Amino acid sequence: MNAYEGSVFKRCGCRSENGGRALGVKCPRLRREDGAWNPRHGNWWFQLELLRTDQGKRRQARKGGLASQEEARRQLDHVKALLALAEGEQDLEVQVADLIQAALKGRRPLPEVEEVRKRIGAGVDVRREPPLVGVWLRQWLDGKPDLAEGTRASYDGHIRKYLIPHLGKVRVDRLQARHVEVMFAAVEEANVHILECRDSEDPEVRRSVRGRRVISLSTKHRIQATLRSALSDAVRSPDLPITVNIASHVRLPSCPRKRPLVWTADRVRQWEKDGTVPGEVMVWTPKQTRTFLTHARRHTWLFPMFHLIAVKGLRRGEAVGLPWANTRLVDGQIDIRVQVVQLAWETITSTPKSAAGQRTITLDADTVKILRGWKRFQNEARLQAGKNWQVTGPVFTRQDGSGWHPGQVSDWFCRIAKAAGLPPITLHGLRHGAASLALAAGTDVKVVSSELGHATTHFTQDTYQSVYPDVAKAAAEAIAALLRGEPVSAG
User: Fold this and answer.
1) Architecture of the structural domain at 133-249
2) Domain Core-binding (CB) spans what residues (predicted)?
3) Tell me, which fold does domain 261-480 have in CATH?
4) d(Cα 219, Cα 444) in Å, to the nearest integer?
5) How far, in Å, CA of 130 to CA of 114, rounded?
6) Is the dihedral of CA 444, 449, 455, 458 positive or negative?
């Protein structure tokens, strides 16, 4: 027999009466008296001569215990189809033969013809089985030493909490969009369970989901983005037979940008009545921001930082990490070059992750005056503390000179806002408010975008341009004045 011939036969385990010799295919009970196969005795086999090994050893593809002649022929044809993929190339035919023999010896199903065809087309050794998704994700993340720590922590969380538990045991070349969609369906089922338990009248049920959070649509999109990035590298890998990034074909509802909503009088009244917060991103009116800063003045060690965030829109980590070395009060400018990133409760100091994030911000006279007063106060505190002062270098420090933890700053912000009787916003909402204030004051959107560290003016304008109702009201009145034939001021 050559490599593309083979045979299908029936045999059994009977032995001769005299010598105990195995009868195999010669057992008379394999056929009935009329010559037809006996369906109640023996089982079906196929056998095919394979190309010799690299060491020149002869070998066969041979398998028994099959239920029917049709099944044996089907598997024999499958083996022939796999061998035909080599198209007479001896090295490739040896690889395919090794793959077939390994599957038969390991009692595993034969690989699919299309799967082997893809691996041959990708130019990879067909004998090397592609890794599981879980293994590939870890290899992929470990192979990116230059990732920012915050980005690495985000990727690791997605991989550890969602991708590996749901997809980790699927081979990477067999992963399909439906697998990922089933994962997101399971995440949504968990969300529903958490919400139902929170609404339960049984305290034990409520306690069972304490600490568990609902996974938002935006988080699902970020999980998908992590998988898409990992599979993009898999597609580019010369060792993997993957030509399509299936994560790009996963269907998730669109995730519109969360535009800030201002705490108008009507919204505040509703909040005071039943605690309703109308949006995920809320900002204060200028008057509410002034109220907050008035109360924050009582907290000497925090007020200058909160003022700077409220006026110039620094991110929390940028304000906490701002060093005096990058603060030029004579010029009225600060250079944003570092930030403190919180990973769980640990912190690291890094550079802003985008080029736009590394920027120079111009300070107004009032802010310069506040920072100068703060610097004098800090120097006096340092002299009084003497050796107990921790020389750390940031602009904003605690009473012993040590830097603030970002989480502590957020906690103090919420305490002060609550004490002031203000409706709730996050500390990041103070940054959103600074952007809206700047645009409402007529500052050019290019300047606002640059000082906030946005990559494009489109993002700034689309997100913040019409936050304050007073601005929209003024625009509407200006249009009405034009229709009445009245002059409209340039301001």
Assistant:
1) Orthogonal Bundle (1.10)
2) 131-235
3) hpI Integrase; Chain A (1.10.443)
4) 33
5) 14
6) negative
Nearest CA among 303, 210, 259, 263 for reference residue 424: 263
- Token output for 287: 């008057």
Give the separation between CA 120 and CA 71, rounded to whole angstroms. 27
- The residue behind tokens 């690495």 is 152
The residue among 316, 305, 328, 278 whose CA lies nearest residue 398 is 305
Instruction: For residue 254, give the H/E element and its range.
Output: none
According to CATH, where is 1.10.443.10 located in the chain? 261-480
What is the identity of the amino acid at 472? A
Q: Which residues does 311 contact at the CB level (< 8 Å), separation at least 6?
A: 364, 366, 367, 434, 437
**pTM as predicted:** 0.66
Radius of gyration of the chain (CA): 35
Asked if 370 and 307 count as a contact pair (C-beta separation under 8 A), the reply is yes
Provide the token pair at 474: 């003024």
Residue 483's pLDDT band (cuts 50, 70, 90):
low
Q: What are phi and psi of 196, to 5 degrees?
A: -65, -40
pLDDT at 425: 96
Pairwise CA distance, residues 217 & 228, whole Å: 16
Angle, to 10 degrees, between the axis of helix 149-158 and the axis of helix 133-142?
A: 170
Tell me what pLDDT residue 4 has.
64
